[in-house]
């Protein structure tokens, strides 16, 4: 493997001048960079980091041991960071056995949050996968170098905000924030941001974001797609609607595949600035029409014991819903219920958002409408809820393709979800 | 019958183990989740979406795979498995290693006393040839020998 050129300070860190813990952090980052042909480190220029591991799972003792080693060795983060959602919220429905499992599973939560605070956790309740929301305040600028994990946040930061971040693993992202630099390779470089695929959208209506992202992710895997024709449906302005759409589409590309960056012609910052010069000469083409989206959704496996079971819970908001998406649901859901002659949802429903958005939304008339319809508003991570084996056995439906990918939850499009919530019964 | 493949050692090491093969991307979190949670020392794979591996023991096996997929907790999960002595004997990638798997292999190397030699770029022919149960020998320089029974 090629050797990286380190600055004097970086070499001293590697040699242990800043302590043994920092030396091991640097050794890890150097090996990581050399694996991918990085020639140097570059400074992290984003103001805040973002960590993926937010859950105090009792089985992660080795991780807590590593955190202790960092803290005792004085290897703390040089920047404050936000972090993925908390795993528990007593407002989210759970029976006694499920609650008992939660208590055992996440028994290290308080201790772990104490470690995170010592390492550099922001003090504004920053537990969300959508740390880039205005209400949360971890919104990088175009061109900034980040040391983040959380696949949905990384793909959003790269694609919609034009920041630069690799698809880092948990722990590695923290190491970048501790060292204040990251190895220069992949999506940090101009070459690594060139598109390997042209995706042509030829649908007869606006494609469902979650299915479109899934189709793209499964096709291109870790490659960079340049998406043509989507601006026809989204417009040429990165307004709130477009950002919400791309948040959900991107999360599906990153979980159904391993996409860390996409370009939308005439819409995302680099595509607007650089246009088709972003496309590699040997780029492959993937055409997406109505039939292709239908095929993709039809082939999702159902791993419920009884595929015709009546759903017992519905999750909406993975990744977390924006304020505007909550407002949308506060109109669409009561209207759908009214048309079906109901006043409350037929399936217990949880909508999730960041603590900061929840705080802003909770006192509004729109929040009251959702609560009147029986919806629970929460800051929880639906994935961590479903990781409880006692919850994973339940028939759960969702409009999140990410949740579908990682758990037994079944995916349905928004209009299907609205229909089930309004009418109930078996699927 | 023996066949030799040459890859790139990401984490060099020597080991001999029985092959466990997946042709689909290896979802690290989904595969290790239950075994880590319930103290299963064999690290029985719990990824219901992976018919090649679901229900099979991963600890101590030569895991042959194209690449890893899924959550960015992947590297942390591999590190945790290694710390608890439940890691595969080695990781053998047909493709260039992905950033999550690389993180896991390197974290295990730097932060634990466990060995999990990791070789990538073994080529598609490697995954076409190797089957679960075959004997695998890995050398420091990334040479991988696959030995079929009989």
From TrEMBL, chain B:
The keyword 4Fe-4S is annotated on this UniProt entry: no
Top-level taxonomic group: Bacteria
Chain ranges of the Phosphomevalonate dehydratase small subunit-like domain: 44-110
Alphabetized UniProt keyword annotations: Lyase
GO MF terms, alphabetically ordered: lyase activity
Protein name: DUF126 domain-containing protein
């Amino acid at each position: 493997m090629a050797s990286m050129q380190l600055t004097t300070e970086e070499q001293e860190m590697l040699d242990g001048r800043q302590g043994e813990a920092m030396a091991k952090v640097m050794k890890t980052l150097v090996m990581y960079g050399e694996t991918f042909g990085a020639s140097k480190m570059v400074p992290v220029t984003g103001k805040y980091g973002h960590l993926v591991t937010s859950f105090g799972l009792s089985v992660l003792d080795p991780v807590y041991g590593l955190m202790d080693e960092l803290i005792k060795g004085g290897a703390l983060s040089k920047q404050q960071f936000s972090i993925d959602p908390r795993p528990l919220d007593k407002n989210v429905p759970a029976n006694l056995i499920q609650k008992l499992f939660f208590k055992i599973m996440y028994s290290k939560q308080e201790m772990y949050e104490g470690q995170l605070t010592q390492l550099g956790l922001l003090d504004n309740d920053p537990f969300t996968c959508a740390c880039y929301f205005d209400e949360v305040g971890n919104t990088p600028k175009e061109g900034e170098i980040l040391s983040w994990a959380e696949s949905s946040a990384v793909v959003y930061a790269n694609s919609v905000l034009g920041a630069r971040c690799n698809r880092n693993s948990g722990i590695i992202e923290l190491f970048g924030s501790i060292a204040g630099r990251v190895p220069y390779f992949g999506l940090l470089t101009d070459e690594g941001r060139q598109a390997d695929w042209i995706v042509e959208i030829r649908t007869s209506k606006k494609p469902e974001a979650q299915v479109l992202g899934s189709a793209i992710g499964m096709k291109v895997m870790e490659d960079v797609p340049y998406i043509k024709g989507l601006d026809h449906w989204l417009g040429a302005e990165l307004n709130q609607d477009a950002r919400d759409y791309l948040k959900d589409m991107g999360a599906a590309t990153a979980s159904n595949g391993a996409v860390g960056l996409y370009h939308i012609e005439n819409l995302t910052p680099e595509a607007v600035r650089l246009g088709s010069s972003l496309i590699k000469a040997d780029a492959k083409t993937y055409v997406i029409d109505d039939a292709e989206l239908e095929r993709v959704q039809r082939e999702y496996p159902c791993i419920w014991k009884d595929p015709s079971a009546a759903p017992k819970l519905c999750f909406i908001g993975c990744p977390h819903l924006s304020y505007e998406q909550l407002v949308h649901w506060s109109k669409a859901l009561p209207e759908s219920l009214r048309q079906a002659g109901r006043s409350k949802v037929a399936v217990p429903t949880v909508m999730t958002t960041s603590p900061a958005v929840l705080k802003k939304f909770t006192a509004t008339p729109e929040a009251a409408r959702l609560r009147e319809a029986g919806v629970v508003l929460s800051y929880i991570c639906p994935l961590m809820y479903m990781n409880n084996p006692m919850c994973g056995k339940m028939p759960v439906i969702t409009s999140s393709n990410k949740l579908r990918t990682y758990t037994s939850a079944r995916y349905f499009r928004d209009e299907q979800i609205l229909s089930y919530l309004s009418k109930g019964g078996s699927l | 019958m023996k066949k030799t493949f040459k890859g790139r050692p990401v984490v060099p090491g020597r080991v001999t183990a029985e092959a466990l093969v997946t042709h689909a991307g290896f979802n690290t979190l989904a595969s290790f989740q239950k075994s880590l949670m319930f103290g299963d020392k064999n690290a029985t794979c719990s990824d219901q979406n992976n018919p090649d591996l679901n229900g099979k023991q991963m600890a101590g096996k030569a895991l042959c795979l194209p690449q890893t997929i899924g959550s960015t907790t992947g590297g942390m999960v591999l590190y945790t498995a290694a710390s608890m002595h439940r890691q595969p004997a080695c990781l053998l990638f047909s493709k260039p290693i992905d950033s999550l798997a690389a993180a896991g292999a390197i974290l295990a190397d730097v932060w634990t006393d466990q060995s999990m030699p990791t070789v990538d770029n073994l080529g598609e022919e490697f995954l076409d040839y190797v089957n679960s149960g075959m004997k695998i020998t890995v050398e420091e320089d990334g040479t991988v020998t696959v030995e079929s029974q009989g």
